[in-house]
Write a structure and sequence with these properties.
GO terms for molecular function: ATP binding. By secondary structure, the chain is an alpha/beta fold. The chain has three domains: 6-224, P-loop containing nucleotide triphosphate hydrolases (Rossmann fold, 3-Layer(aba) Sandwich), CATH 3.40.50.300; 235-267, no CATH class; 290-326. Helices cover 39% and strands 19% of the residues. The chain is built from twelve helices and twelve strands. The strands form three sheets. A six-stranded mixed β-sheet has the order 6-7-8-3-9-10. Helix 3 runs parallel beside helix 5 (144-156). The two termini are 30 Å apart.
């Protein structure tokens, strides 16, 4: 089953007088992997909570399968939420339950499946995330990376059509993050669900998604094919992707323009955007993600609306796809270690 499209239009969220972001508009293409970037404190996690109806926006709409989550009834919202699976930052596992019972929990709460069927489903999801044999362990007895994977198995247990990842790489070292990134790509190939990842990790943003968005200065600065942002000459993009101090982003999200200009003048010529890395492919034996062909057709249709640099990057990527599999698919094996 292909994931569903999520259409967000003019979304605005505030807490009291504090505006978090305004007029956020984007469409998550069905079955594709999207990433939402942005400096700390820009409301990326708030966006995820708004997307599933945990927070109510002041304006805008979120339309899924023809239903607007902002204006629908509680009964309709409950049904739409069944389409979602969520991986929280810390896994959000029940500390008193072993991994098996944690992963089985949504099935016991929301379905009438027999324990035999539940056992089969849990075993399948644990195998998908590389946790077979760890069913009896408690969350406090395993590593952070294993807790993330257990949380991911629980997020997948109801076969959601939309999966949200709230900073899945937080607290993980670069090696575990690389394994997790490969796992996300492989799971997208297996499920064909719509994925949205909130992250600060630049390597994840460069190598995992089909689409990238950037939240900045209380609005969505851009959202589109990965090549659009990764080839952008916008100062905030170059600063964020290079992880440098000089630029419009400050300690408290943004600097005033005079300070930013002064720093740039003092720093002199700075490197531009980093070289664009190839997108991760699936692990050996899985075959190409179904989303790849759909995305290729979709991006070709919108190619004329993109910058020349993005158009060139897309053409090169499509030409490379036609000549053979990406070498990046061989770099990281399917997850199985801890």
């Amino acid at each position: 089953m292909t994931g569903v499209e999520v259409q967000v239009e003019g979304l605005t969220k505030s807490f009291g007088k504090a505006n978090i972001w305004s007029d956020v508009t984007l469409t998550l293409p069905p079955g594709e992997v999207s990433v939402l970037l942005g400096p700390s404190g820009t409301g990326k996690s708030v966006f995820l909570k708004t997307l599933i109806g945990l927070l109510k926006p002041e304006q805008g709409s979120i339309v899924i399968n023809g239903t607007d989550l902002v204006r629908c009834s509680e009964t309709e919202l409950y049904e739409i939420r069944k389409l979602f699976g969520v991986l929280f930052q810390d896994g959000a596992l029940f500390g008193s339950m072993n991994l098996y019972d944690n992963i089985a929990f949504p099935l016991r709460e929301h379905t009438k499946k027999s324990e035999t069927r539940i056992r089969d489903i849990v075993a399948d999801k644990m195998d998908m995330v590389g946790l077979t044999g760890d069913e009896g362990k408690l969350p406090g007895e395993i590593s952070g990376g294993m807790r993330k994977r257990a949380g991911l198995a629980r997020a997948l247990v109801l076969d959601p059509e939309i999966v949200l990842f709230d900073e899945p790489d937080s607290g993980l070292d670069p090696v575990r993050t690389a394994y997790l990134n490969q796992l996300i790509i492989d799971l997208n190939a297996r499920t064909d669900a719509t994925f949205l990842i909130v992250t600060h990790d630049i390597n994840t943003a460069q190598t995992v998604p089909d689409n990238i968005g950037l939240l900045y200065r209380k609005h969505l600065a851009m959202f589109g094919p990965r090549e659009q942002l990764l080839t952008s000459d916008e100062p905030v993009v170059a600063q964020f992707l290079n992880g440098r101090r000089e630029g419009p982003i400050g300690m408290s999200e943004e600097k005033d323009s005079a300070q930013a200009e002064r720093e740039m003048a003092e720093a002199g010529a700075l490197e531009g955007r980093p070289p664009m890395k190839p997108q991760l492919g699936t692990s050996t034996g899985l075959g190409e993600r179904s989303a790849v062909a759909r995305r290729r057709d979709r991006v070709e249709r919108m190619l004329h609306t993109l910058s020349p640099a993005a158009q060139q990057a897309i053409r090169e990527s499509h030409a490379h796809d036609a000549t053979g599999p990406d070498l990046a698919t061989q770099v990281i094996p399917r997850v199985g270690s801890r």
